[in-house]
Amino acid sequence: MSHEANGAHPRVTKAVIPAAGLGTRFLPATKAMPKEMLPIVDKPAIQYVVEEAAAAGLDDVLIITGRNKGNLSNHFDSVPELEFTLERKGDEGRLGRVHKSSELAEVHFLRQGQPLGLGHAVGRSHRHVGDESFAVLLGDDLIDERDPLLTRMIEEHDRRQATVIALMEVPQESIHLYGCAAVEATDDPDVVKITELVEKPDAAEAPSNLAVIGRYVLRPEIFGLIENLEPGRGGEYQLTDALNELAQGHGKDPVYGVIFRGRRYDTGDRADWIKANLLLGVDHPELGAELSAWVQEFAERLRVRDAEG
């Protein structure tokens, strides 16, 4: 008998990270390397996401991969030859960083098979997750470790026994780039009840300026809704459509949103990926001082150039 059937509510311990995308916006860099392995300063983007899950107490991580993604599993595995070389050199700093990536959590991998959308990828995790609540973290959405969004979302899930989605206020003219939430206020200004989700609405028709970003804490009933989805544009099955069913009351549990006001980096976009390297680089304990001085010098050069036309 499952925990849910017993009426018990187990701690959220599992995270699912969909990482099967082709990374076409970064071609040719991603021709032979997964976009999730593109470095942010000195770590691949996917490691930041696994670190976030581990910091929130999720010690069981399933990464949904696609073809030509072997580098992902290699990164989270031990590399005895490299470790032996670093140990022989007495390079404890780098050895510790290498060990960390293979000791963050129990990391599993599952092939999506066909790129049929986020809903399909999440649905593939059902056998691994079972009948428990779990988190979904998108691999190209980085949340700064100083702003523990996922921990707050799990707390709200536990308090309300509900699916919880991360939301972020965006300029009204940008809402057409995101899924958008229609909401009702609660007694907490940073928590709202979601009544509808609209995918990439026109700015004039958007129900709010609250955009869905890549963090979810999902109740297990989401799997039944995903199984009953009809394919959308491009034959893909969208997680947003299943969540909208829940939000409109077609499930057992309600849907809440946590409004995130911290630092987020969209590493799936080329310009934002460069910005993420700069923003995290200037705070890096080894590189920060040098990089900060260079950024200020470069900014002055740009100011002069623009002033001179």
Characterization of the model:
This protein has twelve helices and 13 strands. It is of the alpha/beta class. The strands form three sheets. The chain has a nine-stranded mixed β-sheet. β2 and β3 (43-44) form a beta hairpin. α4 (80-89) runs antiparallel to α5 (92-103). The longest helix has 21 residues, at 288-308. The chain is globular, with a radius of gyration of 21 Å. The protein starts with a helix and ends with a helix.
Short description:
The protein has 309 residues and is of the alpha/beta class. It has helices at 3-6, 45-55, 70-75, 80-89, 92-103, 118-123, 126-129, 149-160, 222-227, 239-247, 270-281, 288-308; strands at 14-19, 39-40, 43-44, 60-65, 106-111, 134-137, 141-143, 163-169, 179-185, 191-199, 210-218, 255-259, 264-266. α4 (80-89) runs antiparallel to α5.
